[in-house]
Amino acid sequence: MAQQKSREPRNMRTSVKGPLMFSAFWAVVAFVATLIFASGGTAKTPRFDLAFIAAGIAFIVILVVLAMLSMGHKPNAEHLGKGSGVNLSSRNSGHGGPPARPRPDAGDPDAPRDRT
Predict the structure, then answer these.
(1) Contact 72, 51 (CB under 8 A)
(2) Is 31 in contact with 54 (CB distance < 8 Å)?
(3) Largest Cα–Cα separation, the chain
């Protein structure tokens, strides 16, 4: 919060509106699904008690999971995206494609091999 200015809009990572709306959407889905399926059909009375319980549980669980994911987020260091890795070219790495130099013990690659 010390980095935020008073008049600047919050970015997506520090905003509260996105996770609340996401949790509310899934709470409504859980409410409707529980209301339909827990009553056992349209001939019986709807079970609003179970629907509210399912909506509350869905809202809280999804909100807690999103909060844990946002707290665990750590951006990568800048030098990792610059291409400063060990294998800059796949041609020299030995993975896929012909090797850059033939090995001294390999001999002639076109010569027929004895398969006895």
Answers:
(1) no
(2) yes
(3) 84
CB 27 within 8 A of CB 58: yes
Q: How far is CA 89 from the centre of its chain?
A: 29
Contacts of 75 (CB under 8 A, 6+ apart): none
Residue 39 structure tokens: 């009553």
Q: What is the C-alpha separation between 35 and 32, in angstroms, rounded? A: 5
114: region left, alpha or beta (phi > 0 left; psi from -120 to 50 alpha): beta
pLDDT digits (tens, 9 = 90+) for 60-107: 999 999 999 888 877 877 776 676 556 555 555 555 555 556 556 656
* Token pair belonging to 66: 């999103």
Q: Whose structure tokens read 């909506």?
A: 55
Which pTM value belongs to this model? 0.55
Q: Are 38 and 47 in contact (CB under 8 A)?
A: yes
Question: Given the structure tokens 């030098």, which residue do they identify?
Answer: 79
